[in-house]
Specification:
- By secondary structure, this protein is α+β, with helices and mostly antiparallel strands.
- It has two domains: about 70 residues; about 120 residues, Chitinase A, domain 3, CATH 3.10.50.40.
- It has two helices and six strands, in the order αββββαββ.
- The longest helix has about 55 residues.
- The N terminus is likely disordered.
Length: about 210
């Protein structure tokens, strides 16, 4: 084979190799462009998702969320219909004078509701003080919670079981209770000793 022919063959081979390399470079460049396009699309999608998250977070943030109305609390004290407005205020219970030997019931405010009777469940507000010096030892007002019990059922002191019978709902009653109908002169359970005075509001019967 002549030198010129070999040169022609080499040049053709080189051209084919160069063309192949060019095609490979073009294919690689196309792949890079596709990868860039895919990556760009992914970034754009992530940006959209992030934007939606921000919008959702902002729309449900405490500042943007609607404020629900607070639950309506039961008013205290729960006065019966037509009750004297004075029953909405805690009474001032003071001590008595002298020696108390029997139960004394005094109507301070007369109610207009049904009359209490033994066997009924009655609901009351009360303040209790020692009769001798007027020192308060118990009060439903301090707990903002009325007290309910069965009248005459033996669940309270005798001064209450006996003293709260026969009053109309809506009444404010003062009970002066001797030791024998209270906790006695020497109670052992931490209860107040001696004669006691209670101011009781009769709020309801069942």
């Amino acid at each position: 084979m002549a030198v010129n022919e070999r040169s022609d063959l080499l040049s053709k081979a080189e051209k084919r190799a160069a063309a192949g390399a060019a095609r490979a470079r073009a294919a690689q460049a196309a792949r890079r462009r596709r990868m860039l396009l895919v990556a760009g699309a992914a970034v754009a999608a992530l940006a959209v998702v992030a934007g939606l998250v921000v919008v959702l977070v902002r729309s449900y943030s405490p500042a943007a969320a609607p404020i629900s109305a607070p639950a309506t609390a039961t008013p205290f004290p729960p006065l019966p219909p037509g009750a004297d407005p004075a029953l909405a205020t805690k009474p001032q219970a003071k001590g008595g004078g002298g020696t108390l030997t029997s139960l004394v019931k005094t109507t301070l405010i007369e109610g207009k509701g049904p009359v209490t009777a033994a066997g009924q469940t009655i609901t009351v507000n009360y303040v209790g003080v020692t009769y001798a010096d007027g020192k308060e030892f118990d009060s439903s007002w301090s707990r903002s919670e009325p007290f309910s019990f069965t009248l005459g059922g033996g669940n309270v002191i005798k001064g209450w079981d006996q003293g709260l019978v026969g009053f109309k709902v809506g009444s404010r009653v003062q009970l002066d209770i001797p030791p024998a109908l209270a906790y006695g002169d020497n109670p052992t359970n931490g209860a107040p000793k001696g004669a006691l005075r209670f101011v009781v509001d009769v709020l309801g019967v069942q």
